[in-house]
Write a sequence for this structure.
């Protein structure tokens, strides 16, 4: 499976961001990608306006998503948008698009209430584990940003058959934070002998640092901190080899993790 990582700096206006996404989709198609992973919060962002996300949230049948859906013919696209919850907050919603349709969605369950941030002030949490989708002959599970700090989510995806974990994110810069990002993505790949495709928003607040980590913890693609589109081939033989020489899923002594509904 060929994956494209579309790293960009999200603007305050959703029209600008939609145009940026459409360009990345077109370039990913031209490059032969089966899957394009975009960052978290691609609808709107403004570090000077903490209310921009609830103010600009759109339903999944709104104009932002309509444009992206129309462009998804012949490719699978995923990223995170803000969807109103009907009660003044929004769901941080990961969507998977293919051939003009939304084929899967996931509401972020772990909200970023850490390092002085309070995502839960404006965001409503989801209560269901993320899905696993078949893309390009591989089974792909999804998580969103802060979820990567919770290994039970990645293990649940691997137990459900995931061979790849895709992680749209908006990883905030800070002392040690970029190191955390690299270590956590590498750990989730090694924990589950799967590929991790992690795509971060870049710009003033967030570090970018989109990467692909292979099932034995080797970083095979790193996009740095500037806007970029990168491509990487994910090899089923590499997954099979990793799971043969490092059978952690087979050797584990614990039951499959189950998320308790709140």
């Amino acid at each position: 499976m060929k994956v494209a990582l579309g790293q960009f700096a999200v603007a305050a206006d959703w029209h600008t961001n939609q145009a940026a996404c459409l360009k990345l989709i077109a370039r990913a198609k031209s490059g032969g990608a089966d899957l394009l992973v975009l960052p978290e919060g691609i609808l709107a962002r403004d570090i000077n306006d903490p209310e921009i996300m609830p103010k600009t949230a759109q339903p999944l049948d709104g104009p932002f998503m309509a444009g992206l859906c129309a462009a998804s013919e012949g490719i699978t696209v995923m990223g995170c948008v803000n969807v109103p919850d009907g009660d003044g907050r929004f769901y941080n919603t990961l969507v998977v698009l293919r051939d003009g349709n939304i084929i899967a969605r996931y509401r972020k369950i772990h909200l970023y209430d850490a390092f002085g941030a309070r995502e839960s002030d404006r965001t409503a949490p989801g209560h269901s584990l993320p899905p696993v989708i078949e893309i390009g002959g591989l089974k792909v599970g999804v998580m969103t940003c802060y979820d990567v700090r919770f290994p039970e989510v990645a293990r649940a995806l691997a137990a459900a058959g995931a061979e790849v974990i895709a992680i749209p994110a908006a990883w905030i810069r800070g002392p040690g934070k970029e190191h955390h990002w690299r270590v956590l993505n590498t750990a989730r790949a090694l924990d589950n002998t799967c590929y991790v495709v992690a795509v971060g928003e870049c710009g003033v607040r967030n570090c970018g640092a989109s990467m692909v980590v292979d099932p034995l913890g080797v970083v095979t693609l790193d996009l740095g901190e500037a806007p970029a589109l990168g491509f990487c081939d994910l090899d089923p033989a590499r997954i099979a080899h990793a799971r043969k020489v490092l059978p952690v899923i087979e050797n584990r002594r614990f039951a499959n993790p189950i998320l308790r509904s709140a």
